[in-house]
Amino acid sequence: MKKIWIITLFPNYFDSLINFGITGSALRGERGSSLEIKTIQLRNYTPKDYKGVDDAPYGGGAGMVMRADVLKEAFMKGIVEDGGYGDNFKEKLHVVFPGPRGKTWDNSYCKDFAARFSQEGSKDLVFICGRYEGIDERFLNLYVDEQISLGDFILTGGEIPTMAIIDSALRFFTGVLGNKESSQQESFQANMLEHPQYTRPKVFDGVEVPEILTSGHHQNIAKYQKEESLRITKIHRPDLLEKDKK
């Protein structure tokens, strides 16, 4: 059973991830998957409730910093000890911190991440959800294996990027998607956006579905969809096409 651990001040954030949609089904052990998600309430590992989770930064400055000792307590007791990982836990766990120093998350990075951690015998995952001005540098250096950034913008905490990383990566785990070809025919595959999609009704507000899509000629349809994918990418994300030239 592949476990995904999350240390957070707000475990309820992840209810929607677990209870709804394709990802939720996979995390509930359905769809033939062997995945389990566990949230660790950080404040349970300090006697002072929220007031003991963070403190003022040495050297001054605005905001508060999450304490290294509290994070370690949650990690060692809530995950390493309760999860039965033992003294060689570093060989069994991969700790991720969503933050601005990390490499930017994109489809290529997502597929690589999934390949590393979806294989049988690969490490279980731990996500640390930061808050306030961040977390103590010493915890980052001693316990975090990988930092990941969603982009050059600021969020109020690490819960949203953690959910985005998990949701997008799990799509590449075996058995999560009902049709294994689905993840290969979406936007960002081959550095292009997906072709336009249509469904019933055949005519909507006077606009008809492109005739070729109802022709039943699969080879011509595939050619048309590839051309449309290129056209849409040139209009909306020409930067993706530049990646092929580098």
From TrEMBL:
Enzyme Commission identifier(s): 2.1.1.228
One Gene Ontology term from the biological process aspect of the record: methylation
InterPro entries hit by this protein: Alpha/beta_knot_MTases (IPR029028), tRNA_m1G_MeTrfase_C_sf (IPR023148), tRNA_m1G_MeTrfase_TrmD (IPR002649), tRNA_m1G_MTases_N (IPR029026), tRNA_MeTrfase_TRMD/TRM10 (IPR016009)
Pfam family, one: tRNA_m1G_MT
Record keywords, A-Z: Cytoplasm, Methyltransferase, S-adenosyl-L-methionine, Transferase, tRNA processing
GO function terms (MF aspect): tRNA (guanine(37)-N1)-methyltransferase activity
Designated name of the protein: tRNA (guanine-N(1)-)-methyltransferase
Gene: trmD
